[in-house]
């Protein structure tokens, strides 16, 4: 009889990233405050358990 092995652990969390442009071609980005320096970043984040990618993208916006 075959035995089922455990699924290997995921090395990375599933995530989404959003590139949002307006009609003029301008890109939406925000600043992320990280210590002494600020960094520009597009909306992105992890997908929660039971969540669809489009739902995660909407939440991150």
TrEMBL record:
Xref: InterPro entries: NUDIX_hydrolase-like_dom_sf, NUDIX_hydrolase_dom
Gene3D superfamilies (UniProt xref): Nucleoside Triphosphate Pyrophosphohydrolase
All copies of domain Nudix hydrolase, residue ranges: 11-61
SUPFAM superfamilies: Nudix (SSF55811)
Signal peptide positions on this chain: none
A Pfam match: NUDIX
Region (Disordered), start-end ranges: 30-61
Name used for this protein in its record: Nudix hydrolase domain-containing protein
Annotated source species: Tetraselmis sp. GSL018
